[in-house]
Specification:
Mean pLDDT: 88
Low-confidence stretches: 843-847
Number of helices: 32
Structural class: alpha+beta
Distance between the termini: 56 Å
Shape: globular
Helix content: 25-40%
Strand content: 15-25%
Length: 847
């Protein structure tokens, strides 16, 4: 969470230097511009202390730096000083002092100890002069048993006396204690109980269980207490939560204080309790702090969300750092701008002649690096954007922009599908960036399925002819024109137009819609969006236009909370109409199907359960008394106990990457010898797991429950994947298609809303065609499919398009056009429509 776009691209390092060198400090309390205080002004301020006040004048000679400082302490002794404060502890210089050079230290020399008197001015002035001389203009005043004041000849507010630290780059770093907000330590957020998560469905009433944590477990007590509280405050607990007033909701969420509530016991007789009704939020927070049970804490964490830090409001920095401005803007103001807006701002920054001489090279570096971000199609991102919120494609392009900024020569760059998440318009910028890397004298190797990138390449290498064990051969190589002319290359046939994904002859029509009202998360401008039901809908738009915000952060969480009682926090919106037309919502994303090697396609799709039952039903198993559990590699009994069913042994290498070696006992088969002796059609359970899906389908063709699932996996283009292939070795696209196949193999019920985010990632033209056939089967079964996509073959095959934009970031968040692909192609303002017009035009087939 500490990484941001600015820190990853190193732009933030230049910004910290810029604000430290030409920044104008302002008082964080009164807002007045701060100027340096003279020694005379510091003395005048100290003379206002009450008579009789005992205080020390100290020189902070070391502030937060590592070292032993033996020579410094020896010099202080030689200069006649007797006391020194080190890391908050007062020591005598005559004592032997040894400091650990590995740790940072604060050292302040006591210059003088005084008692305030009217005739003290001369001595006090001399002490201040000595202190500022020792500590480069700084002086600390420690009032005995009172506050500590810091003054600077450089930065101090003349109006209210507030001092500012010396302007140096580290006070603008939220990863250093000198600049980080002390409340959130530079994270910008704190995890707190979120009312939106404890009441996931506001259409329910308190009586129906709107308060999710009190819906189960010991809810009987809370149900009776809620009823008593409602009677006391005349609240109708049968009203939907959303119809209660804010004051009424706050009573249930934050409590009422200590009051006597009459609670009817389970037996029905009256009992009077002296109850402090603390409310749901306070109850969860208290239990989270007091509980020693990890299970209880994990359960409560389900209702916690990251809220902006109450002190810095998400800015991450301490008030003193935020009070320094360049061109009237704080460093936070600058990093909150999109890269496009930030470049325009810094290029038009007005500076004095002196400031320009100081900042010229810094401004040049910042502007250039911002240009690199814009050129790779992510100009809509702000420098403050957390790195963990970036998609894989955005993260890759940020690394690409960083490499371009280094201007290295003679380097080989390898990129794996950099076009992920890029609109066709932005893809042109990416290609130009790759060409610039090449022109600098570098070698650029790109693994890519994008047609535009392939046609722009100087040399193509086409592998195949199929996937998995059917691939691994060079089918064609040469210029794009030479590959396109090779009839043996499937890629070439699509590039030449011999093979193509045809435009559907007709579009499906719809009657019912799902309406999202007033969506305003991130850059969405309170839009109302109608999503047609029982058709294939594509949500399109340039990168950063708000597609994922609308679908993944607003529509899906709200529907999942309502239909499945999920605990998700949807983006702010007015409501969703037409939910009664949908029975279920499924988000088929590209997250792994499992995070350990024990997860695989067979276990995820459930086909392994049926295979184990088949082996348990064989004559050999019945004779031995084996049950289906015997053929599981996750439980004791049939698995190899040396490797615990992993098939390999993990060797921890501590500071080196862990090494995996095949198990010497089972030789990678996962099972013990007795289990492997049981065979079905001559194959052991380990042999079956080693089969590819296309091999396994004919093998189990006579077993409907198994064959149906295997056929679906094969239909989505995963025939080359082995049944027991570890989930950790599957790509995001493969994992997504396994999830899709798992849903397809279930008995169709209709009225399900499927959401897919760029399912064409990692897919060849031929695989895209298969994917469209699979999605068509889902829609034909009465389901609704909503796809976020940039691939023109998918967009032109959709029944309906919702185009967002017109630009990314602040320039997006509006509906540009909705309608069929033909209708969108006719909208001049739509960037998607411009490229769609070309895709819908008939392609002349090669002779």
């Amino acid at each position: 969470p500490r990484s941001t776009v600015g820190t990853v691209t190193e732009i933030y390092d230049y910004l910290r230097l810029l604000w430290a060198r030409i920044g104008k400090p302002h008082c964080p309390k009164c807002g007045e511009e701060i100027t340096g205080q003279t020694q005379e002004q510091i003395t005048d301020r100290l003379m206002t202390l009450a008579e009789g006040t005992r205080f020390m004048v100290m020189a902070p000679v070391v502030r937060g730096r590592k070292g032993e400082y033996g020579k410094l302490l020896e010099q202080m002794r030689a200069d006649g000083y007797s006391r020194v404060e080190i890391d908050g502890e007062m020591l005598m210089l005559e004592d032997e002092i040894e400091l650990d050079k590995k740790f940072k230290h604060d050292i302040s020399v006591v210059v003088d100890r005084l008692i305030m008197k009217p005739d003290l001015r001369r001595r006090l002035s001399e002490s201040v002069e000595a202190a500022t001389g020792l500590a480069d203009g700084l002086v600390e005043i420690q009032v005995i048993d009172g506050e500590r004041m810091t003054f600077s000849e450089n930065f101090a507010c003349l109006k209210c006396g507030t001092s500012m630290p010396e302007l140096e780059p580290r006070i603008f770093s939220f990863n250093a204690p000198h600049g980080a907000c002390p409340t959130c330590t530079g994270l910008g957020f704190k995890r707190v109980i979120d009312p939106a998560l404890v009441v996931p469905d506001p259409t329910m009433s308190v009586a129906e269980g709107a308060l999710q944590p009190w819906r189960s477990g010991y809810s009987g007590y809370w149900r009776r207490l809620n009823k008593s509280v409602a009677q006391t405050y005349d609240i109708d607990i049968d009203l939907p939560w959303q119809e209660l007033t804010q004051e009424e909701r706050d009573i249930f969420l934050f409590g009422t204080g200590s009051e006597r509530h009459t609670i009817r016991s389970k037996s029905g007789r009256q009992r009077s309790y002296q109850v402090k009704f603390e409310g749901l939020v306070n109850n969860l927070e208290r239990r989270y702090q007091e509980s020693e049970s990890e299970a209880v804490r994990e359960k409560i964490e389900e209702y916690m969300a990251e809220q902006p830090c109450p002190s810095c409001k998400g800015a991450r920095l301490r008030p003193e750092s935020l009070a320094v401005t360049v061109g009237g803007a704080s460093i936070r103001d600058f990093t909150e701008m999109s890269a496009t807006a930030a470049r325009e701002w810094i290029e038009n920054l007005e500076m004095t002649t002196t400031e320009r001489a100081i900042a010229r090279l810094i401004v040049k570096e910042v502007a250039e690096r911002l240009s690199f971000l814009i050129n790779v199609g992510i100009g809509y991102l702000s420098l403050a954007r957390s790195a963990r919120t970036l998609s894989g494609g955005e993260a890759q392009r940020i690394r690409l922009a960083t490499q371009i900024g280094s201007s290295l020569v003679g380097v080989m760059y390898v990129l794996d599908e950099p076009s992920i998440g890029l609109h066709q318009r932005d893809n042109e910028k990416l290609i130009a960036t790759l060409e610039r890397l090449r022109d600098l004298g570098n070698t650029v190797i790109v693994v890519e399925h994008d047609e535009g990138t392939m046609k722009a390449a100087d040399f193509l290498v086409d592998l195949g002819p199929g996937a998995g064990e059917h691939g691994g051969e060079v089918i064609a190589s040469g210029t794009p024109a030479e590959v396109a002319a090779d009839p043996g290359s499937l890629t070439g046939r699509y590039l030449s137009g011999v093979e193509q994904i045809a435009v559907p002859e007709h579009r499906r029509e719809f009657e019912d819609v799902l309406t999202v009202r007033g969506a305003r998360q991130h850059n969405l401008h309170g839009i109302d969006v109608e999503v047609p039901l029982r058709v294939l809908t594509c949500v399109t738009g340039v990168s950063g236009s708000g597609k994922s915000t609308l679908v993944n952060e607003t529509l899906y969480p709200a529907m999942a909370n309502r239909l499945h009682r999920a605990k998700l926090r949807p983006g702010p919106h007015e409501g969703i109409d037409g939910t009664d037309q949908v029975d279920k919502i499924i988000n088929i994303d590209q997250s792994p199907i499992g995070r350990t090697p024990r997860s695989n396609p067979a276990t995820y799709t459930g086909v392994f359960d049926h295979i184990r039952q088949l082996f348990a039903a064989t004559q050999e198993s019945r004779a031995r008394g084996y049950k289906p559990g015997r053929f599981s590699f996750n439980v004791k009994g049939g698995r190899c106990e040396v490797c615990k069913g992993d098939g390999q042994i993990k060797i921890e290498m501590h500071f080196l990457p862990d090494v995996y070696v095949p198990c010497e006992q089972c030789h990678g088969h996962r099972y013990n010898r007795e289990t492997l002796e049981v065979r079905f059609k001559g194959k052991s359970i380990a042999d079956v797991l080693e089969m590819s899906i296309e091999e396994a389908y004919p093998f189990f063709e006579s077993i409907p429950k198994v064959a149906r699932r295997l056929k679906t996996l094969n239909d989505v283009g995963l025939g080359y994947v082995r049944l027991g292939q570890p989930a950790t070795t599957l790509s995001g696209g493969e994992a997504q298609r396994i999830k899709l196949a798992s849903e397809l193999s279930k008995v169709a019920t209709g009225n399900t809303l499927y959401i897919l985010d760029e399912p064409t990632t990692g897919l060849h033209f031929g695989d895209v065609r298969r994917l469209l056939e699979v999605l068509g089967r889902l829609v034909d079964a009465g389901n609704t499919v909503v796809v976020i996509e940039h691939d023109l073959d998918v967009i032109k095959s959709a029944d309906w398009i919702i185009d967002l934009g017109p630009e990314g970031g602040d320039g997006g968040g509006s509906i540009v056009a909705t309608g069929t692909p033909e209708a969108i192609a006719g909208v001049a303002e739509s960037h998607t429509g411009r490229f769609l017009r070309e895709a819908l035009e008939p392609v002349a087939l090669a002779a």
